[in-house]
Amino acid sequence: MSTVVGEMDHHDHHHHAPSGITRWLFTTNHKDIGSLYLWFSFIMFLVGGAMAMVIRAELFQPGLQLVEPHFFNQMTTVHGLIMVFGAVMPAFTGLANWMIPMMIGAPDMALPRMNNWSFWILPFAFAILLASLFMEGGGPAFGWTFYAPLSTTYSSDSTALFVFSVHIMGISSIMGAINVIVTIMNMRAPGMTYMKMPLFVWTWFITAFLLIAVMPVLAGAVTMVLTDKYFGTSFFDAAGGGDPVMFQHIFWFFGHPEVYIMILPSFGIVSAIIPAFSRKQLFGYASMVYATAAIAGLSFLVWAHHMFTTGMPVFAELFFMYCTMLISVPTGVKVFNWVATMWRGSITFEPPMMFALAFVILFTIGGFSGLMLAITPVDFQYHDTYFVVAHFHYVLVSGAIFSIMAAAYYWLPKWTGHMYDMGLAKLHFWASLISVNVLFFPMHFAGLAGMPRRIPDYSIQFADINQIVSIGGFAFGLSQLIFLWLVIKCVRGGEKAPAKPWEGAEGLEWTVPSPAPYHTFDTPPEVK
Amino acid sequence: MAEQQHEKYYVPASSPWPIVGAIGLGLIAFGAGHTVIDASKDADGWGVNVLFAGIAVILIMLFGWFRDQINESMSGLYSKQLGHSYRQGMAWFIFSEIMFFAAFFGALFYARVIAVEWLGGAGNNAMTNAVLWPDFVAHWPLTETPGGTESGAMGWMGLPLYNTIILIISSVTCHFAHVGLEKNNRRQLTGFLAVTIVLGLIFLYLQGAEYVHAYQELGLTLDSGIYGNTFYMLTGFHGMHVTLGTIMLIVMFFRVLKGHFTPESHFAFQATSWYWHFVDVVWVCLFIFVYVL
Amino acid sequence: RSQLNLTQGVTDISQRVYDLHMTIFYICCVIGVVVFGAMFWSMIRHRKSKGRKPATFHENVKVEIAWTVIPFLILIGMAIPATSTLIAMEDTSEAEVTVLVTGSQWKWHYKYFDTDVEYFSLLATPRQQIENKLDKGENYLLEVDRPLVIPTGKKVRFLITSDDVIHSWWVPDFAVKKDANPGMINEAWTKVDEPGIYRGQCAELCGKDHGFMPVVVIAKEPAEYDAWMAEQVAAKQRAEEEEQRLLAMSMDMDEAMELGERVYVGSCAACHQANGEGIPGVFPALKGSDMALNDMQGHIDIVVNGKTGTSMQAFGNQLTMQEIAAVVTYERNAWGNDTGDLVQAADINAFMNE
Ligand code: HEA
Ligand code: HEA
Ligand code: CUA
Ligand SMILES: [Cu+2]
């Protein structure tokens, strides 16, 4: 990035971090709020992961061993919901909070109080969701996609709580996204033109736009579920002139952009890390920006690829197939740019780079299976099998989660002021890399061989595969505890980190000391 | 963007209101959920109490938060750049509201153009009609559902038309109030603002009358099939937005009386007026797609 | 019968789908080798530890256009066969046999168009196998009491719908998977050339026992199929006569309880549980319930007609009158309900003719 002239200086209202619990409850500081988001998301990752462990334990062998089918469905559902809305999205928001103001040379987020509000809604929303598991009749058991009428007429009472908890999660995300967008549009340091912004900022800018565009649609969808279940409407009931498939259209109009919400910021992170550890400028900055925008634009036109088996007319199936396939083009541009950035660079393999490289390869594998799913006639075979489960865990776990790990390893020294334990970090990487593939790769085979998803029990031909998958799952889960330990260690102490611990790193965040002072850029730096 | 603007950017110190707001929303969600569950079982529960407690907390939060905000604004802590932030924030908020309505308009279009037609046998759905709904003929407004529920349909003449005219006029008067503010003509400001508020209240009253008419005379209710569903959801959510907008206008009115706002600095007023225009535009779409067509 | 890849299936269409799958897979492999190859090359050769100095290039319009256009062309190459296969799959016209397939929680119902033949198809795997009390059979979870039977060599059209939630009717060997949407009918078709038994499963989350509603289809030579069909028609006739005969007869308590238990386990226990206690908040208990103890007419009504808006189905057309009588009797006397009520087929008949 560009050079900085006006270094930060001490200004009139320079309050230091207040202490005690009220610091966290009342804070308006983007770094505090960023930390809150990150811790929250990590806790949710553990909770959602624990549910995945229940799923994997039940599926370890054919037959019903540990849990009832109804409870199994609750685990699947809440695992999906928690991971999507509780782990990945808040983690990205946390990173945005920490890094965007520092990257664009702003003193804070544009709307700091609203920022704190966005965060504190989340613990309440998820407490309600988790509490509903203990109600009579159990929590939501209709999949994270809550298709009607399973979620309306045929669901348990907790549905009302599910609906309202999604409502307030949505409010939180929308406010968070507005904050990001306004910060980026309005708070850039002088000279920080749009086309000089780091890609993380760009990808988040576009992500925020997607969020504001689709979270309200999700709110509409849950509202109609609520009225169909409790107030006698028939949006999703043919007898009243509605259509259950209409639910899916509305849901996926939200849902598909949502999955890109969970990957675009990853692209930004990787686009920062690969150049840093290749010691070479990012290849094709402008085309990266355009590709991101193209992916976001196309994401509004592909939603029905989740619905190929619902019986749409052929021309609609063709339209959605073609648009979906097209997304591979801008995504490919990104992958090629990363590879070209590495080409003839001077590469080193610190933990952030290790995770970023694993991201590129494993995400691309997930992208390939996505492309296969896009081919409508073949999707008839893949749909609702473990092939789909394999696809989205590759893009979400070894994609989104790996990029979040990479980001944490990249910026931890900046956040805590300490270097972390490199040995542990590498152990975490290798353990994760191997186990994640043992966990998710065989799922492709299970799916191709015909194992449906969302089942608590399966026919014996899938026994071996599931056993391997479960073992990979337990190993991957345990590996994440290494990360937890590493972060705690790093927060509590360690070798002092310099302002810029990575030789090739670029950007304003590295011009301030480590740990970043409570207030940075009270006076904006000048970007040339 | 000039440099000195950045230097003055006001970052508020910590504030208790956000977490109060979060608690409020949490109580509302929890309470509303239980209220709905209790109601579905005809049971009296504590859900409503939690819901009202949540609403009370939110009101306290709004009051406290805006008081702080107004004090800061009046004591000149705000920079022009912060004004930009607020305005952009409001604009994006309105965009999110548009998308919320889009979900329901989408449901309306889908039901009308696709679902009802398919139930009537259109497209590749001849068998749907022949086997499952042999007596059903597609029509809109859907006064008789495939399941056999009958209801009336709401015409566009009369009340809806008056309401449309009222809201369009109120948009104009709201604009003139704003012009008055910008010209520092306080009389014009208060006068037009008052007219806008009155028009908003009349709209709400007529809307209520229309619902009574629909329920009692047309038999058009929330559970009379997709036509009634989309009708009530769209007009209902719109009505809630008008209510909110009217309350905001009333608050603005009292602030104007207290001498708040200057031609240069009046974000709250501007936001309210944007909101009001947005609510009007939604109504016009509603009028066209729900009533006329 | 362990397999790792998509089945090639037994129809022309399933073969085309398989070929398409493999083609796309190989293309992805090739792209993968190129992309990952370049990456690994950099990772191995362009390391700092090898004393590499970084190059400075960071843009190249020609290259960027190339790697936009080439993938686009590859995609067009994929889209062409995909389109023609899809269009063939969606063409349900000119079918010779039509079957109405209705999903419900958690079984399939088949009705042959233009005949009276219709029946339910339920999971046949014994509960003990699922609960690990017995060794699992070869077709564990993939076996049903009455499979769908279709003729080979003829185009068979499926009209697929549902009585409650969304299910999805899937037979991998035919490459047919279509959602069963309540209130709407979807169409699919197949033309099987080889006789055989083909197994599939419900492929849309449909509640608690989604994992336990398999699909089994038997394809028979047309002659055998016709014989089978004739037998079904005759059996149907016999059943009706039997029903009339049974109406005149009455069961004693032991007979009723024995038959009732069998019916209960097959049709009711999935929800109300074998011990009659239901699942609180989801499925009501029958043990000690007001209806089972007092309200006999209500009890018969709910079993015969079901309760709309809930998972409680109408069993009037699924069970014989005698079975209904027996199961109601059972429910009124099992688990300590002990009402002593004995319901007869004639009572059900009287109720239904009201
Ligand atoms: C981060 C999340 C994420 C991402 C990024 C993606 C990316 C993609 N997804 Fe995925 N998807 C999910 C999350 C995601 N998906 C989830 C959660 C589900 C399941 C939801 C549920 O049902 O619960 C799902 C389901 C899903 C389906 C529905 C399957 C079914 O239920 O039947 C489909 C079908 O088209 C699909 C397609 C794609 C495609 C084409 C991409 C593309 O964006 C991928 C593009 C990338 C590449 C192709 C690789 C790199 C490109 C190159 C190297 C260039 C050259 C390549 C070629 C020309 C081939 N996805
Ligand atoms: C970003 C999102 C995300 C993430 C990170 C994950 C992470 C994981 N997911 Fe999941 N998953 C989804 C999103 C995600 N998933 C979605 C959207 C669905 C679809 C839901 C639906 O069908 O509706 C799904 C569904 C899904 C299924 C299919 C369920 C079914 O169809 O019935 C399975 C099955 O194996 C699974 C497994 C896992 C595993 C093993 C992990 C692991 O990566 C988790 C690892 C983490 C931990 C384990 C936590 C850390 C460790 C501890 C807390 C200590 C305890 C550890 C041990 C005892 C070993 N997930
Ligand atoms: Cu029926 Cu799943
Ligand atoms: Cu998608």
Automatic annotation (TrEMBL), chain A:
Its top-level enzyme class, in one word, is translocase
Please provide the record's keywords in A-Z order: Cell membrane, Copper, Electron transport, Heme, Iron, Membrane, Metal-binding, Respiratory chain, Translocase, Transmembrane, Transmembrane helix, Transport
Q: Does the keyword Transmembrane apply?
A: yes
Task: Outline the extent of the Cytochrome oxidase subunit I profile domain.
Answer: 24-528
Q: What is the annotated localization of this protein? A: Cell membrane; Membrane
Share an example GO biological-process annotation for this protein: oxidative phosphorylation
Tell me which stretches of the chain form a coiled coil. none
Q: Which reaction does it catalyse?
A: 4 Fe(II)-[cytochrome c] + O2 + 8 H(+)(in) = 4 Fe(III)-[cytochrome c] + 2 H2O + 4 H(+)(out)
Please name one Pfam family that this protein belongs to.
COX1
Would you tell me the protein name for this molecule? Cytochrome c oxidase subunit 1
* Source organism of the structure: Pseudidiomarina atlantica
From TrEMBL, chain B:
Q: Where are the transmembrane segments?
A: 9-34, 46-66, 90-111, 159-177, 189-206, 226-254, 274-292
The entry's protein name is cytochrome-c oxidase
Write the Enzyme Commission number(s) for this entry: 7.1.1.9
Highest taxon above the source species: Bacteria
Q: Name one GO biological process term.
A: aerobic electron transport chain
Q: What is the lineage of its organism?
A: Bacteria, Pseudomonadati, Pseudomonadota, Gammaproteobacteria, Alteromonadales
What region holds the Heme-copper oxidase subunit III family profile domain? 5-293
Q: Matching InterPro entries, A to Z? A: Cyt_c/ubiquinol_Oxase_su3, Cyt_c_oxase_su3_dom, Cyt_c_oxidase-like_su3, Cyt_c_oxidase_su3-like_sf, Cyt_c_oxidase_su3_a-hlx
Query: Which EC class is the enzyme in?
Result: translocase
